[in-house]
Design goal:
This protein has 138 residues and is mostly helical. It has one domain: Four Helix Bundle (Hemerythrin (Met), subunit A). The protein has four helices and no strands. The mean pLDDT is 84. The structure holds zinc ion. Zinc ion binds next to helix 3 and helix 4.
Length: 138
């Protein structure tokens, strides 16, 4: 089944929201939330599943599948920044949890995670502001 440009954009947006929800949990002390690990895992599975839907659709890679004149360049650029920022949060979070699991000192990793998270929120806000202002779908 082929996804339309708008469906792809909606999936990409949902993916951002799920990642953002997963990232916002990094501010929560896991000991205070029952089944915290399952919640995180569930969000990560949902994210993977949406990523899978987008990936299947984009094979074989056709860079010009969407005519460039219909694409918002600023949105594409912000979306790329957001993907990088989200990945940084993910990697920082992983490093933090790995260290915590091994009972190592986590203070630097925690600080790095907070920095990555603030950066991610900044880019996410810029992305949402742009989409709200411009109303672009792809
Ligand atoms: Zn736009």
């Amino acid at each position: 089944m082929k996804l339309t440009g708008e469906e792809r954009a909606r999936i990409a947006d949902s993916k951002h929201k799920i990642q953002s929800a997963a990232n916002s949990l990094t501010h929560v002390d896991p000991r205070k939330v029952p089944h915290f690990d399952e919640i995180e895992e569930c969000l990560e599975n949902a994210d993977e599943s949406l990523k899978g839907a987008l990936r299947t659709e984009s094979e074989p890679e056709k860079p010009n599948a969407i005519p460039t004149e219909n694409r918002c360049k600023e949105r594409a650029s912000l979306s790329r920044d957001l993907a990088v920022a989200i990945k940084n949060v993910y990697l920082s979070k992983k490093a933090y949890y790995d260290a915590r699991f091994k009972k190592q000192d986590t203070s630097d990793l925690w600080a790095a995670l907070q920095t990555a998270r603030v950066a991610e929120l900044t880019v996410e806000r810029a992305f949402n502001d742009h989409v709200n202002r411009h109303g672009c779908k792809i």
